[in-house]
Structure formats: C-alpha cells, structure tokens
Design the sequence.
C-alpha cells in the first residue's frame, strides 16, 4: 500500500441500509424554551460531550480540578463576526477574566491552559491571569499561506499563551518532534566545543535524535484553506495539525481535554484522534453541527500514525522551502534579482 493511500481521510459517515452508523447520540434542544444564558447537552459520545449555550455558565457548572488540558480560541475583539464585538479592549479583558477564572478552577494542578489570540490582544491578558497560574510561556503560531490585503504590516502569526498551575506539568517532547533542517543533517555527528553549553566542559559528540529535532516556541503550521479535508465555513477555524501538537505535548492518553469555545470542533476532533476524552461548549448551533459530523468522521488510526502523518507533512513543506532557498541563493550567485 502506498503512503498516500495509507493516509486517506474519511469523507462520508458509514451507513447501513441508508441509515448513518453514528457513534454519538444527538440530544434534542427545545429552542422555544432554551435559555442562551444557560447550557444544555447537545451531543453525547463514548469519549466526550458537546454542550450548547453560555460558556462561562457552563464552565462554572463543572467539577473543580476535573480537566487535564484546556485549549481556548475565544473571540479576539477584532470584529471578525457578530460574536467578536466588544465596546473596548478593557471590556474585552474583563470578559476574558470572567471565563479564565472558572477555567483555572476546572483545571487540575498538573494542568495546562492554552489561549489563542493576536499578540496585541493577549498582551493585556497575561498579567491579570497570573493570579491563577504558576507560570506562563508565549508561543507563536507562524503561517505563510494567508493573504495580506490590508494597508499595514502583513500578519503571518498568531500568539498562544501557555499557562501552567504548577511546576508538575505534562510535556511530551518526543511526540511533537520536528524534522531536522537539511543543513543540520549535512553534519549528522560532530563534537561540541568545550565552551559550548552542550559540551559542558567535556568532549561531547552531538548526534541527531532519531525521532527528530526538539520543537521550539515558534510553531510553523499553515492555516486551514479551501481544499483541505478538515475545512469548514467557520471564520476562525484552527488547523488540526496545530491542535494535535498542543494535545500531544500537554496531555496523555485518557486525559480530558476541554474547549470552552468549541466552534467547528477541531479540539474535540483531534482529542478523539489521539485517544483523549473531550468536552466542549459553544453558543452557535450551526458550528456545533459541523463539529458533530467531524467527530463522527474521525479515522481509527493509531496515535503513532497521526504523529507520522504530521511529521511527513512538515518534512514535505520543509523540502519545498529549502528548494526555494537554494534557487534564491543560486539566483544571487548568478547576479539575478538584484534590482
């Protein structure tokens, strides 16, 4: 079987005599009596639940210290959609703290919270959030496939705040290793200088890790775009590859992953792929319909296969980038493109 065939993604839910074979059960919500300020169970799956309603109310209803990992992709306060409008940045910060506080209580002492956003927005959340956490890291999600149509600097990244409640946290580095660059592999084994921080005053020979390079805090993953298997009409959908990195790094098999702004379901989908439990909530029923369908379409692959799937995609992107860099270097040596 070829590599391409082995990574074929499911497009249709299996059916039996015309009836879809569903793993989860959808619960009816009476919209004539439904209170959007509350939350009701919409979908029950052997490995998770989807709720519809107010995320803050829902978070406050959950047991304390019951979740291992939270990934939150909240409104950015950039007027992206009708749910992304706030009177001011101060109002946005106050609203953010109203969900971050209950989220911290739901999180276990060993747990981690990731929050997505633009740097200029997240900068105002770090300080007030630290009253609930022990440490914070700043992760950059870098992408190069997004159009820059505005009149300002083109945007090629979003930021992710990583909050931890204690020094005892999960970080599975081997699960998220990345391909080495062609330059690094050109010299696969070489001694470190005695003055190097890696040499540590001793004769040390560096060799590449067979699983790949240790990832850094700039994650290079393309945004979702038309033609991708996972793409939905959601205006701010995050790529599955990005979520798989986060879930693999900061949780273990059987852990519970929570998303208070579930949207089209990428967090639940990738948690299901990686054998984690999951729970999520959102106010938008249409988004959640997309999420439920995506969960039903999850392939029953081993975790190692998902890791290899992403690794091979990274390797392919890197090879294209390195070819472009080689061509640029050759053009410069030949005196082309100097203007």
Sequence:
């Amino acid at each position: 079987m070829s590599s391409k065939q082995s990574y074929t993604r499911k497009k249709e839910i299996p059916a039996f005599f015309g009836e879809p074979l569903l793993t989860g059960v959808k619960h009816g919500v009476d919209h004539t009596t439904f209170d959007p300020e509350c939350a009701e169970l919409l979908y029950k799956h052997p490995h998770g639940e989807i709720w519809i309603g107010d995320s803050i109310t829902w978070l406050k209803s959950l047991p304390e210290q019951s979740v291992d990992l939270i990934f939150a992709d909240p409104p950015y306060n950039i007027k992206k959609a009708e749910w992304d409008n706030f009177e001011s940045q101060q109002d946005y910060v106050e609203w953010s703290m109203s969900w971050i506080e209950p989220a911290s209580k739901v999180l276990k002492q060993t747990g981690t919270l990731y929050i997505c956003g633009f740097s200029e927005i997240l900068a105002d959340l770090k300080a007030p959030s630290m009253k609930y956490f022990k440490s914070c890291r700043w992760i950059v999600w870098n992408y190069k496939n997004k159009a820059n149509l505005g009149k300002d600097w083109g945007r090629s990244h979003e930021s992710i705040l990583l909050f931890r409640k204690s020094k005892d946290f999960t970080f599975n580095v081997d699960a998220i290793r990345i391909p080495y660059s062609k330059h690094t592999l050109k010299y696969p084994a070489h001694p470190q200088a005695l003055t190097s921080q890696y040499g540590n005053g001793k004769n040390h020979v560096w060799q590449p890790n067979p699983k790949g390079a240790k990832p850094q805090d700039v994650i290079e993953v393309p945004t979702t775009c038309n033609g991708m298997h996972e793409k939905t009409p959601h205006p701010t959908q995050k790529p599955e590859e990005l979520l798989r990195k986060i879930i693999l790094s900061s949780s273990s098999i059987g852990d519970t992953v929570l998303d208070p702004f579930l949207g089209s379901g990428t967090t639940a989908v990738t948690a299901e792929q990686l054998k984690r439990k999951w729970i999520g909530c959102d106010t938008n029923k249409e988004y959640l319909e997309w999420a439920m369908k995506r969960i039903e379409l999850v392939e029953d692959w081993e975790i190692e296969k998902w890791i290899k799937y992403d690794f091979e995609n990274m390797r392919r992107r890197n090879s294209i980038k390195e070819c472009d860099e080689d061509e640029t270097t050759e053009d410069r040596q030949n005196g082309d493109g100097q203007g």
